[in-house]
Design brief:
By secondary structure, the chain is α+β, with helices and mostly antiparallel strands. The chain contains 14 helices and 15 strands. The protein has 2 domains: 94 residues, no CATH class; 371 residues, no CATH class. Its main location: cytoplasm.
Length: 542
């Protein structure tokens, strides 16, 4: 049947279907259906984000075809098919429309069980970094991670202050070089043989008998003596450990809950950790988009608590293994937590340092911190320089919570930068704390180890796959870590504590929100629980 010549633009034709003409020629099928003027049905005309630009102008079938015809300008000899060629290159009648429908259905399956265009937008946005605000629009559909608080807020606790992380990120404070008060303990020389370890020549991680104690501030005899000494006239002293200050300086990166006990007495403020505090343990993939989840299974070796214990065990043994115990440098004073003849004393150095937090001449605020160094290395000039030693650990790249980590045994030697970048993304808070603690201690370098399970299903055996050394300031720049912002957070918390009346307080990180809260608590808080624990232990022994 011969085709009747029509104008080349059917939308502008006087015989075009009623309701299809519009100001811009794209018509208004939506006008007939009660939709917004100038729009067709969205599901019928939707083109997935990121498709070929030509598809955006492809005709979409929304009305009956009987009222218009397709203009055919080809000769009879050229007419071998009766359809038309779509923008996607599909021939044959309305096959192009069927192809579009098949693609839409495919994206629906990839995007989830919900119909419509949501699956397509989710899939495209997730893989290609789609428009902000759309790529993760189905995050609410994931299993909600409702974490428990690190400490139970009692009914008698009184909240004094609530600070959002958005406010913490705006704080800035400059701190001058600290003053060294004293050095305690002993450190060994780093064994450079571990710089040659790689995935093809790995070394088994050994269990070392020596343990490292995380003595809190108020139980530190050196800090206690400094607190009891008569301070200078008008001087306000604040005491803490590098672990606590590191947590405060990186608070805005933290996801897991934590708490710090604050005691105000006269012109002195003491920052403490509780017995068995989570701050004494190393987190794993805390900043991952899909962090490890607690399933309630006690035998799950990939739960957050099990991974934290494993990472703490790895760090303790790695720091003790990669040093040469035959080359020990004794510091000015012996280890304050062990007797002089105790062979089980760990090889670790304690640097007690004093930071000036004063902002005006009238202020006289001193922060005294116990910092730690793990080993010494010879510099190019032949001098001893301090280093801190930490270890990143790989558990199971196929397990939930792995955070898209690469197989270290396959990629660590050839793509070290990509491995480190992934760890910086998944463990941003942990690495930031390590960098801050190294800077507080005045360490010249931070030595990182890469430790992996020998078998992904066994969390008791590990191997060292490699090491890497870096300068703390350079590593902080790579992580976009602003040390001045960290000091701004510390300064703010210290000022809050110094304005409080004498008593006991607790600073708590909300378990599920980017917020920290300051509570006033009774003086007996936490002491009764410790007494009950000691009584129970005594009863069991008897």
């Amino acid at each position: 049947m011969p085709l009747t010549p029509r104008p080349t633009s059917w939308a502008a034709s006087p015989t075009a279907p009623e309701g299809t003409q519009g100001k811009d020629g794209r018509g208004g099928a939506g006008d007939q259906r009660g939709g917004r003027a100038g729009f067709r049905n969205f599901r019928d005309t939707y083109v997935p984000f990121g498709s070929n630009a030509a598809n955006a102008f492809n005709y979409q079938h929304t009305e009956d075809e009987a009222s218009f015809s397709v203009v055919d300008n080809r000769s009879t000899a050229q007419k071998k098919t009766t359809g038309f060629k779509s923008a996607s290159g599909q021939r044959g009648g309305r096959g192009g429309f069927r192809q579009q429908g098949q693609q839409r259905g495919q994206f629906q399956r990839l995007g989830g069980n919900r119909g419509g265009f949501g699956g397509a937008r989710q899939q495209q946005g997730g893989q290609r970094g789609g428009r902000r605000g759309y790529s993760n629009w189905r995050d609410f559909d994931r299993n909600q991670r409702v974490r428990d608080a690190s400490v139970k807020v009692g009914s008698e606790w009184n909240m004094l202050e609530e600070i959002e992380f958005s406010r913490l990120n705006k704080l800035q404070f400059e701190v001058e070089e600290p003053e060294d008060i004293a050095l305690y303990g002993a450190v060994a020389a780093y064994d450079k043989a571990y710089d040659r370890v790689n995935t093809k020549a790995e070394k088994i991680l050994q269990q070392v008998d020596r343990e490292r104690d995380n003595v809190t501030t108020s139980e530190d005899p050196i800090l206690s003596n400094l607190a009891s000494e008569a301070a200078e006239e008008g001087e306000q002293r604040v005491f803490a450990t590098d672990t606590i200050i590191g947590v405060l300086m990186t608070a805005s990166r933290s996801v897991y809950p934590w708490d710090i006990v604050i005691t105000r007495t006269g012109d002195k403020v003491i920052f403490d950790t509780r017995e068995g505090s989570q701050l004494d343990y190393v987190s794993v993939n805390e900043n991952s988009t899909d962090p490890p989840m607690d399933t309630g299974d006690k035998d799950n070796i990939n739960s957050p608590s099990a991974l934290s214990l494993e990472a703490t065990y790895i760090n303790t043994n790695f720091a003790a293994q990669v040093v040469n115990s035959e080359q020990v440098v004794d510091l000015e004073n012996p280890n304050p937590f062990y007797g002089s003849e105790d062979d089980s004393a760990p090889l670790i150095g304690y640097r007690y340092r004093k930071f000036d937090l004063s902002t005006t001449e009238e202020e006289n605020i001193s922060l005294i911190v116990r910092t730690e160094v793990d080993a010494v290395v010879k510099s190019a000039q032949g001098e001893d320089s301090y280093i801190t030693i930490k270890a990143l650990n790989e558990f199971d790249t196929r397990a939930q919570g792995a955070g898209g980590a690469m197989e270290w045994r396959q990629k660590l030697d050839s793509q070290r930068g990509a491995v480190v970048a992934t760890e910086m993304k998944n463990n941003s808070c942990k690495l930031a704390r390590w960098v801050v603690q190294s800077m507080l201690a005045g360490a010249d370098h931070l030595k990182l180890g890469f430790v992996s399970r020998t078998n992904p299903k066994d969390n008791a055996r590990h191997a060292i796959l490699g090491t890497q050394i870096c300068r703390p300031k350079e590593f902080a720049a790579q992580m976009s870590l602003q040390v001045t912002n960290g000091w701004g957070i510390v300064k703010t918390v210290v000022d809050l504590a110094l304005k409080l009346p004498e008593g006991k307080y607790v600073l708590v990180k909300d378990p599920n929100k980017p917020v920290i809260r300051l509570y006033s608590v009774p003086k007996s808080t936490f002491e009764e629980g410790e007494d009950e624990t000691e009584e129970a232990a005594t009863a069991e022994t008897a």
